[in-house]
Amino acid sequence: MRQPSAGPVLSISSVMTQPGVLETGTALRSSPPPRSPPLSAVPPMTAEALVEQLHVKLATHPFWEKPLLKACRRGHLSREDYALVFSQYALLLGSHTRFLHALVAQCETEPERIRLTQTLWEEVGLTPEKRPAALFRRFLKDGLGVNADSIRFQDATRYFVRECLDTCLGASQSSASAFVTLGMEALVPRLYSIFVDGLLQANVSDRYLPFFYWHMAASPGRISNLEALVLSHAHEPGWADTCLSAMERALELHGNFLENLFEAVQHRRLRPLLERIQARTPLTPEHPDPGTLHLEDLSNVLSFYQHAHEEEGIDFSVDRVPFPSEVLETNVVRVAPGHTTELREHAHEVLLVVMSGRGRIHVRGTEVEVKPGDAVFVPRWAANQARSLGPEALTLLTVTDHGFTRLAHDEEVLRAMKLKRATGVDL
């Protein structure tokens, strides 16, 4: 078997010249490109040490900053969002043993095949109800309400899995083993930890997550077995570059898959609204209740939010006008005499109509004096603040497109979920 006990001594000059590859655990500058040092100046490294360098590169790879993973960490995704995400991941997870079988088919020696077969038997040797496939189906059904038998896989999902399988079948064994080991299996502990954290923030119960915990616990042993196969090719010319290229290719494919998933999540949120608009679906019956259309006085509102901070001069309340709208959101804001609202910016546009009182409205670098009957427009992402100047509260009727932006913008998704949990009001 071609597996050295301590690994051959290798030069890493070819790896060091790759943009962003780590030498001592610190990212190299990508501009200007680092010069390739003479071989005499590069300390020799064993194959094991070089693989460890690739793990360091993986830990700092831009892959971990993909929007979907950021949204997971920040708690921006809902249970429904995760239902979409993991319904698509089902194809990848169901194909993982196929990748390993493809590696087995390429093995030239019996010890290599035995080692990979042992990795496969970690799953097959379990009782049926404890196998990862069964755990994942229960997670989909009980945790996310997804019927695994009715999933329709997107084209981007099929492309991702097909490219992975083609690589395992068509690439050289050294490249395929690095692709699976360094570019796929080595992601599992950190990736699944991010998923678990996001699922818990979305109020998916911990009892539905044994699939992730099993893989996170089994991953070190699986990676160790697979890395032995990677190291068995360390004597081959250009082996270090082969490992790096294979890992980068796997991360590129997976990263593109995550980006497509994030776009699908955003589209899922907006699709029902857009479909109702295109279908000309009314949001009200033939003869709607006048109370759902007409605000006779400001007492017919729903108490929603209050904030007071005497030292900062902030004292205001927000009441929601319960119109049955999908895009517009109407609120009544009351600013106590001599006080202000918070200075803030937001993803939605706002129209402010002064109902009573006098005050000053700050919109970015401009301030205007307002009186009853005045209207002020606040563009999205423009810092704004209202101050009450008279002896009575400044009362503002605010109309926003928050019904749309809470679906289209991640921060607003999170804000809407938090406010719903805190107030019980479905925005």
Automatic annotation (TrEMBL):
A Pfam family of the record is Cupin_2
Cupin type-2 domain location: 332-399
What Gene3D superfamilies does the record point to?
A: Heme oxygenase-like (1.20.910.10), Jelly Rolls (2.60.120.10)
* Keywords, alphabetical: Oxidoreductase
Q: Which domain of life is it from?
A: Bacteria
Q: What is this protein called?
A: Cupin domain-containing protein
- Per the UniProt entry, what species is this protein from, by scientific name? Stigmatella ashevillensis
